[in-house]
Amino acid sequence: xxxxxxxxxxxxxxxxxxxxxxxxxxxxxxxxxxxxxxxxxxxxxxxxxxxxxxxxxxxxxxxxxxxxxxxxxxxxxxxxxxxxxxxxxxxxxxxxxxxxxxxxxxxxxxxxxxxxxxxxxxxxxxxxxxxxxxxxxxxxxxxxxxxxxxxxxxxxxxxxxxxxxxxxxxxxxxxxxxxxxxxxxxxxxxxxxxxxxxxxxxxxxxxxxxxxxxxxxxxxxxxxxxxxxxxxxxxxxxxxxxxxxxxxxxxxxxxxxxxxxxxxxxxxxxx
Length: 271
Hints:
The chain is α/β, with parallel strands linked by helices. It is built from 9 helices and 10 strands. A 6-stranded mixed sheet has the order 6-7-8-3-9-10, sandwiched between helices. Strand 7, helix 6 (about 195-215) and strand 8 (about 215-220) form a beta-alpha-beta unit. Helix 3 crosses helix 4.
């Protein structure tokens, strides 16, 4: 990225709030209202072709932030930019397709995020039909095979259904779906947390290989500090909706400044 090139993603003072009811009568929908701030004035950039790791314990707001970036969750204040274009001004369902194509997502649970009634071919060809309507049927079929091979699967897998695959294979299909529209950024929401340790390493290696080949940027959301350290060029540590520390992996892991970061690192099991 040159000095004058905007980052692929820019988040400026973004806050997300929810209204929840408290007290013993909350189950009847008539309890006292309370404002809960899930994300509080968060700002950061994701440079083109780089990986920014967002780490924090469960419930800290990192997945809410990821959904807000995808416009799957409304924000209460702040701005979100994709390149020079402000995407936060669009309601999620009305975001223009050219902008929608630039940012894709890999969800935590690969089985829940894939339609069990569709074959792998249909899962991968659907985004091609939507975003590349001029592509012929033959071209789409060839592109599906190319996507499968890109994520370590083969052409024979295209006619199978999601339940016929292992968890790691399903996540490879989800990665292929995200890559289908040639995005500039992929938000990876805990993409390896539901997988075995050995499979986690394979998926992380695959993501690195894809980034090297395509130049796609990642916002990698996780609670596993080791995975974030291995994959990221820059690390953000989140607590209670706020970024409490940021820096390179060497800075954050080698000489953490925030007490919360020190606590997280101290909690990592030692072998």
